[in-house]
Design brief:
By secondary structure, the chain is α/β, with parallel strands linked by helices. It has eleven helices and 14 strands. Bound molecules: zinc ion.
Amino acid sequence: MKNLLLLSAAFGLMACSAADTASDKTAEGVKAAATDMIKAIDRPLPAPADDLRTESIGNNLYVIFGSGGNVGVSVGDDGVLLIDDKFEKNAEGILAQVKGLTDAPVRYVLNTHYHGDHTGSNAQMAAAGAELVGHVNVRARMGMTFENKTFGRTTKAVDESLWPTTTYDGTTTMEFNGDFVNLLHTPNAHTDGDSLVHFVRANTIHMGDNFFNGLFPYIDVDAGGTVAGMIAAHDKALMLANNETRIIPGHGPMASKADLQAARDMLQTIHERVKARMEAGDSLETILASNILQDYAKYASFIDETNMVRIAYRSISGE
Ligand SMILES: [Zn+2]
């Protein structure tokens, strides 16, 4: 396994801003560099296939929507970098969508967390030559078998061929395709190993499953996730974002800073409502019977109001 040091050696660990390191440091110089990046790709988008559809979001960045988590794609002179890679069954489809954008190889897959709808194609991507990168806890989780009490099932360790081979902790920066790609760990959020991925120059953030746009979020309490950590992850991204920032959620359509703020406010409200009932001495059953999230019914999907309350209850109680 490679560690942060090797990742840093490959790319240069950088804490400075894009403007600090651009060869022409004037505002015009930075703008020209960004324009060069945009000009580099002029192919039409690949045709949708296998339930997968690619959307251009500017600055040589793309998102592959469809089953599983949203895949971020960076295309340029350095090759292809993917953020997450859906299910195992999607591997060929993802590679076909990428092939429609460029002939360059996939060099990196950044895993935002361990879930199988974000890491399922890891083995195939590694076999195709990609290096798998994730937070240290992503690798650790993929090697663990533990109970998921929210859904009453066992989360099983997966084959080692799926595990990230390069890990980091805290934050790290890669320089890739003319941008600075910051990986920021968000502790105990959707899981215990989530990363936000910030393309500094492109003003784009991939949130992983720290953000479900327009949906109640799943929080994997049994893998170290908490509502408070999810709120903190939203806050971290909100600090990095402005009104032009393109935000890629783990699930759901592309989002703006305002969408992210709305999701954050909903989470805060859910947390406060459940906590107030718990402090008043209500049992989980009593809280569930009270329909306290009725006004958020439109956010229900595979996480419905009942699951959302149970998750918040378990997060707050630690049970
Ligand atoms: Zn997830």
